[in-house]
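Hi R.,

Here's the chain you asked about this morning:
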Amino acid sequence: MKYTAYLRLSKGLSENTLEAYINDINKLIKFVELDPSKNILTLYFGDFLDFERLLREFGISARSQARIISGIRSFYDFLLKDGYIDKDPTEMIEGPLLCNRYPEVLTVNEIDLILLSVNMSKPVGHRNRAIVETLYSCGLRVSELVTLKLSNIYFDEKFIIVDGKGNKQRVVPISARAIKEIRHYLVDRKKLKIKAGHEDVLFLGRRGVGLSRVMVFYIVRDLAHIAGIQKDISPHTLRHSFATHLLEGGANLRAIQMMLGHESITTTEIYTHIDREALRREIIEHHPRNKNYIDNPAFYYYEGKEY
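And here is the predicted structure, written out as tokens:
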């Protein structure tokens, strides 16, 4: 399919993102197949409104709807550029309104609790601690963690080379604590019978092959559950926590952008909103004016009258 080649070569998308784009187009194709009179090249604005309505009726969330519409826009942009259509019928589609949902963030104490919840008596104990510490220390995406190469860790210089989105590499500093946990894990790693082709993969399963993204998700989620943390936790939560804690500590937004591997600074700017929300909560909870009004009902009365 030419569109697949276009996404892979022109946009440099990862295989996971590429698969999501194709799935979105397949949803539209199935919608078109419901009516023999429709053709994907001759759809008009009203057809897309019907498609959006169908997505809502199937109970697809607003956020997922927005992603699907974004994928379809990309597809029709390709059709227009390649001369299959003369006008883009999706240019007027707005998609669902999304509420401002900021990502979940862990406190430093909660991250320490997750690390303490690792059962060090198990063979995978050092590995799992190294995974959590590396995710948090370097702000990695889970896809970047599972493809992290042993040869791309520079222990003495305290940095790693990360293969990010679109096959773009970046240099990320790594903390002394993460290095310590990785070194402990490497002792256990040497005991594994490593399968051919996985010799340079840092984090391995017990069968000597690289971990999947799903496996890392379960590791982090289960450790958070053992630690008694009630938040909705995933490996990405550690990445969000990394960026938020850097910002709270006074780090430059541009530096955070570079470490996260964001192509645009606007993606990184969400962490300024998180920081403002945290600041607002601190003021409400601790400023004497707010605290007195919350804690002392007498402030709501004057000369026997309720205000």
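One quick note: The radius of gyration is 24 Å.

Cheers,
M.
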